[in-house]
Specification:
about 180 residues; mainly alpha; 6 helices; about 80% helix
Length: about 180
């Protein structure tokens, strides 16, 4: 029972940190400004780790590799701790591979969340302060779909199509994660 509680707490804390680091990485990759409440929240909770890591890990082609590496390391350490508490002996290669697959999965979940929130705000309150932020996050992924899927009766169906595509991508990722873990 205590082992399950410890695994749950580790998973929760590590996942929260990894999601924050991934949001920071994606904000920078998509050129989303941090001058908004969500951006300030992410900066406040991740700068303690990212700023020192940037001294060691340089960026590459405009990508903040320090943040991405920190997210990967945090996920790998969290997985190691969970497996160790459960009584297993994880291999370094399996941990690294599963953590990498998890970063892709978490990134897709972030995009799904952003699309759902974007659509909800567009319908409920298009003038909400978070609307421009969500538009900047989702626009690069919706734009290619909008070329091929016209609005039907002035309703944009591309967010729904994007969510379907993202969930289809999550299916092979779950099998890849199991294969990387050796299950």
């Amino acid at each position: 029972m205590l082992g399950q509680i410890a695994i749950f707490l580790i998973d929760t804390v590590v996942a929260f940190l990894v999601y924050l680091l991934l949001v920071r990485f994606h904000f920078q990759w998509l050129r989303v400004p941090f001058r908004n409440p969500a951006g300030q929240f992410v900066l406040a909770l991740t700068s303690w780790a990212v700023v020192p890591a940037r001294r060691v890990i340089p960026s590459l082609a405009g990508l903040d590799l320090a943040t991405l590496v920190l997210a990967w390391l945090a996920q790998a350490l969290g997985l190691w701790a969970q497996v160790a508490i459960a009584g297993g002996e994880p291999t370094l290669g399996a941990l690294a591979a599963v953590a990498a697959v998890d970063l892709v999965r978490f990134s897709l979940y972030i995009l799904v969340f952003a699309v759902i929130l974007h659509v909800a705000l567009m319908w409920i309150n298009p003038d909400a302060p978070a609307e421009p932020l969500l538009d900047m996050i989702t626009r690069p992924f919706l734009r290619p779909l909008r070329r091929y899927v016209p609005p039907v009766a002035n309703v944009d169906l591309t967010p729904m199509l994007l969510i379907v595509v993202l969930y289809v991508l999550l299916i092979p990722l779950s099998y890849l994660r199991m294969a990387a873990a050796g299950l």
